[in-house]
Structure formats: C-alpha cells, structure tokens
C-alpha cells in the first residue's frame, strides 16, 4: 500500500523534480507500468565514470539493471564503456584492456562487472587465439593499487553472518601473485640485487638444491604505499567505530616485519589519540594478530565490529573466510583503491563473486534463473558516489557540480533502500527468499517499481516484518551431508535422548575449534565470549 494523498517532489533534489505535480490517478498511471517514471522530469547528468562490462550471467543481469534502474533516471552519456569479454579481448589483442586501464587512470572512478579468465577448454570452445590472463594485475599496476577494501554488506532488518560491519584491507600489490618461477633440478640458486644507482650488487639469498625436482620462486613486496594503506584503513575504522587489527606471520616470515612496523608507526603518530578518545581502543595499543589466530577469530567474532589489514595473499584467503561466515562472496564488497601521480584517488568497484556460470548455462537453456545482484549494485553505487565526489573536487566553486553530486548521492541512497526493502518484504531472489523467490527478471522489475515510487515520495505504508533470517539452505551451493550431520549429532548426544545439552554442545564446539573463549582483552569487537584466550593472546598479540 502507498501513501495516497501526497504531493510529490517537494523535498527531492532539483534534478528529480517534475515540472508539475500529479494527482492520484496520474501517479498510478505512470508508476504502475515500466519504466515507472513521471513525464516532464529532468534526468540527472551522471558524472564521468568508466564502466567495464564482463560476460555471462552477471553481464546479462547488469544490462537489465542499466535499462530499468539507471537509464530512466540518469543521462549516462558521460560514462565510458569498455567490453572485457574474452571475445573482445581476443579481437583487439587485449588493446581494450589497456584502453580501459588508461581511461580509469584519467577518470578515476570505475565500475567493473565480473570477467572470465578462460581455461584451456574455454580457449578452445570460444575459438580464442590464446588464454588471456586475469585483467586484475594490469589494473592494479596501472592504477597504482594500494589496497583492496573488502567489507561485509548489511541489510537493515536482515540477519546475515556478522552483526556489525567487518572491514578488510588487502595489500593490492606484491606477494605470490606476481612471482617468477622455474622448475629445476639439483644445483645452486643465487638471488642478487642490483641497485638502480649503480652501486655494488648484494646477495639476497644463496642456497643449494639437493632434490632432483625443485621449483624456484621469486617475488617481492613493494612497501612504499603501505603508509597510504594504513591511513585509509585507520580512517575507515575510526569513522565506523570498529577495532583495527594488523595481520601478518612475521614471527616466522621475518620479511613481513616492515609491513607491521609501518602500520604501527602511522597508527601511533596519527590515530592513537583519536581511537582512545573514541573509546575504541582504550589503552591505545594497536594489536597485531598472527594470521593463524586471525583465521580462528574470524569464525568466533560473529558480532563483527572489527577490521583487519594484511599482505596480499593472506588478505585473499582471509576475506574468502569472511565471505563464507557472513553468507557468501555476494555479500562482501571488493574495491581497489589506488592513487594517481597528482594525488587524486582512483577507486574501482566490483563484486567479489564471479560471472555465475551455472545460472548462465540455465538461462541459455531457457530455464528460470534467480540472480541476486546485491554485490554488483553495492559496487555500482560506490562508483557513482565516487564519481560525484570527484566532480565536486574538480569543480569546487560550481553550484551545478554540487547539485549534481547531491542528486547522485540521494539517488543511490533511494536505490539502496528500494533494493534492500525488496528483500525485506519477502520479494527477494531465491537465495534469500527460498523457492518462492522471484526470478532474475521479476526481481529487477520489482526493484524498479519500488524505486520509481520512492523517487515520487510514495513509500510503503506497511512496514517490513520482524528481523528476517534467510536460511542458508536457500543457497544453490548448499550441500550439507545430512547423514554425516546425524552421525556427528549422535556422537555428542552422549545419553542418546535426542537432544544435546549445553555440556555436550561445549564438547562439540571445542572439538571443531570454534568454541567461544573467555575475554582477556576487553576490546570492542571481542565480546565476553569471542575474544582470544590467554594463550592465543600471548601468542598472537604483539604491540
């Protein structure tokens, strides 16, 4: 039901105002059929942005969203579009990738759909000249990548995994991803450093290989931008009132010490007092977590309210764990943060999941699909908001730029509200609403319908129900072995009464390694049943 006697466009940004107001009959005429917009309404001129399209199910879904959620309200002629499908990369000998990287560096706000890195089989089936590699490396290098921010996505009124936000900063460069390697036999390996200034070379490592088969791997970790990562991380944690942790394995991998040292120095010099004053870290001591301990704390700290920063590889692994605890990769963000030579921040937003090939195959067979676009939409809204910020930053004295930026932000907020409320009203996709959930096409239409009404200030009279807890069994990849589950239950139902007591539950959780532990740190996210034990605190915490 909708508010029925409301005049519209009284408080909306100038760009969304119609030239006249409408009575109830006119409203229903225009807002009950696509595109769910009113006539004589000025579209917002979207600030410049780079839009990188991918393929398969995510590309199909985003094409529908552009047509039904964005284009009815925005003029996106200033957006630059680049096709990073395998075929486009093959046809252009990857020129399109280099062009998109150049455009991203020039415009500094990028949205990217999931893309395919073809397997050998796909190279053959697609008729490609070669197996084009992941575009991520070229993007991170071209945009001077500092960090990949991966945060949990939350919907008010919907209980997912973590109760409060979890932030993660993954160093965007270095580590195993850019490693050189070679298979070798017995012999000697010497690693030598040759300084750019022409001074004498120095040996980094010298070792004898005694096995008949060996793999030699060489990589490095650039550290110049770690201070930028630290500032980005601590500012975000402070603003969100969450506890920051730095994660390394420096007790064993001594070469990780400089990462921690830089993070701690930036914290101590610039943020310690603010975190103490805010009551987030009362003792003012930044905590270091050994990566092994971080793995277990992610499982235990389900109340959320914490942030972690780590090297590239550790960040990749730990954020996958965060995604699974929260619900799935579709419920965390993935935002690459870089910096142009003139100091302008480059931000690229994308979903953390892939192209959803199984749904695409079903779609091609004419079967119903139910694709949840939440992660992609958080990315698109992030890119649109950053483009609005850049518009004002580059035109600080322009009233038009400020008006456009304000309209863009208010639109993305209405779009987020329409998207989230559609889930809350039980009209979500099947991963959230179960078998009765909407198909891909019907869900997108329903959000478009609700968005049109919200823009016209026609809000839902009936509030959503109580806290929604979507069953994880709704997910397509839910694959619990019920027989094994029953056997596990029987093992811990010691008196065989068909129920597990608190004591039996304790034994089960201890065996699984996820039992709540006694608080020894009294820190923000570490509630009385989710903090490290004394032993873990001693082993994992260094200040």
Question: How is this fold's topology laid out?
Answer:
Elements: H1 24-31, E1 44-45, E2 49-53, H2 56-70, E3 74-75, E4 79-83, H3 86-91, H4 95-107, E5 109-112, H5 120-126, H6 136-142, E6 145-149, E7 166-171, E8 180-184, E9 187-193, E10 202-209, E11 214-218, H7 226-240, E12 243-248, H8 257-277, E13 287-290, H9 291-300, E14 306-310, H10 312-326, E15 333-339, E16 345-351, H11 357-364, H12 374-394, H13 399-424, H14 430-433, H15 440-455, H16 482-492, H17 502-512, H18 534-540
Parallel strand pairs: 1-3, 2-4, 2-5, 5-16, 7-14, 12-13, 12-14
Antiparallel strand pairs: 6-7, 6-15, 8-11, 9-10, 15-16
3D structure, described in words:
The protein is of the alpha/beta class. The chain contains 18 helices and 16 strands. The strands form four sheets. It has a ten-stranded mixed beta sheet with strand order 4-2-5-16-15-6-7-14-12-13, sandwiched between helices. Strands 1-3 form a two-stranded parallel ribbon. Strands 8-11 form a two-stranded antiparallel sheet. Strand 12, helix 8 (257-277) and strand 13 form a beta-alpha-beta unit. The termini are far apart.
In short:
By secondary structure, the chain is an alpha/beta fold.
- Note the total helix count: 18
- Structural category is alpha/beta
Using DSSP, what is the number of strands?
Answer: 16
Strand order of the largest sheet: 4-2-5-16-15-6-7-14-12-13
Strand percentage lies at: 15-25%
Rg result: 26 Å
Task: Provide the low-confidence segments as ranges.
Answer: 1-15, 524-543
Distance between the termini: 56 Å
Main sheet characteristics: 10 strands, mixed
Helical content band = 40-55%
Rough shape?
globular
Oligomer: single chain
- Output mean pLDDT: 90
């Amino acid at each position: 039901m909708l508010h029925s006697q409301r005049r519209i466009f009284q408080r909306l940004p100038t760009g969304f105002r119609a030239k006249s107001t409408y009575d109830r009959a006119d409203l229903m005429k225009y807002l009950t059929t696509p595109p769910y917009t009113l006539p004589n309404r000025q579209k917002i001129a979207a600030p410049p942005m780079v839009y990188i399209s991918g393929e398969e199910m995510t590309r199909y879904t985003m094409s529908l969203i552009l047509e039904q959620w964005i284009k009815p309200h925005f003029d996106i002629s200033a957006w630059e579009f680049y096709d990073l499908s395998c075929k486009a990369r093959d046809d252009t000998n990857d020129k399109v990738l280099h062009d998109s990287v150049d455009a991203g560096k020039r415009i500094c706000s990028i949205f990217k759909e999931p893309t395919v890195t073809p397997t050998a089989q796909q190279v053959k089936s697609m008729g490609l000249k070669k197996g084009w590699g992941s575009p991520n490396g070229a993007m991170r290098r071209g945009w001077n990548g500092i960090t990949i921010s991966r945060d949990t996505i939350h919907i008010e009124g919907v209980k997912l995994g973590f109760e409060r936000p979890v932030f993660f900063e993954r160093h965007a460069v270095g580590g195993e991803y850019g490693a050189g390697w070679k298979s070798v036999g017995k012999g000697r390996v010497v690693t030598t450093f040759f300084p750019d200034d022409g001074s004498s070379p120095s040996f980094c490592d010298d070792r004898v290989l005694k096995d008949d088969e060996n793999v030699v791997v060489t990589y490095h970790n650039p550290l110049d931008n770690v201070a930028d990562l630290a500032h980005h991380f601590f500012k975000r944690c402070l603003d969100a009132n969450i506890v920051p942790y730095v994660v390394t394995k420096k007790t064993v991998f001594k070469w990780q010490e400089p990462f921690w040292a830089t993070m701690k120095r930036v914290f101590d010099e610039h943020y310690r007092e603010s975190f103490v004053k805010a009551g987030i870290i009362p003792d003012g001591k930044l905590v270091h977590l050994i990566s092994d301990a971080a793995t277990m704390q992610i499982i235990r700290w389900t109340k959320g309210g914490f942030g972690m920063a780590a090297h590239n590889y550790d960040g990749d692994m730990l954020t996958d764990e965060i995604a699974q605890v929260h619900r799935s990769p579709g419920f965390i963000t993935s935002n690459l943060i870089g910096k142009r030579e003139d100091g302008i921040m480059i931000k690229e937003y994308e979903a953390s999941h892939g192209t959803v090939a199984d749904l695409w195959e079903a779609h091609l067979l004419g079967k119903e699909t139910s694709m949840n676009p939440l992660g992609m939409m958080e990315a698109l809204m992030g890119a649109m908001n950053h483009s609005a910020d850049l518009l004002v930053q580059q035109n600080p004295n322009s009233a038009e730029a400020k008006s456009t930026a304000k309209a863009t932000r208010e639109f993305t907020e209405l779009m987020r509200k329409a998207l989230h409320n559609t889930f809350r009203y039980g009209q979500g996709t099947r991963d959230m609403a179960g078998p009765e959930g909407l198909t891909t096409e019907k869900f997108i239409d329903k959000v478009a319908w609700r968005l049109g009404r919200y823009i016209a200030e026609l809000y839902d009279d009936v509030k959503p129900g109580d806290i929604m807890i979507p069953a994880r069994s709704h997910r397509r990849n839910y694959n619990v072995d019920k027989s094994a589950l029953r056997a596990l239950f029987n093992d811990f139902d010691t008196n065989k009464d068909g129920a597990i007591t608190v004591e039996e539950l304790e034994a089960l959780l201890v065996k699984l390694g996820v039992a709540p532990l006694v608080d020894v740190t009294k820190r923000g996210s570490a509630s009385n049943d989710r903090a490290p034990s004394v032993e873990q605190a001693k082993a994992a915490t260094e200040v």
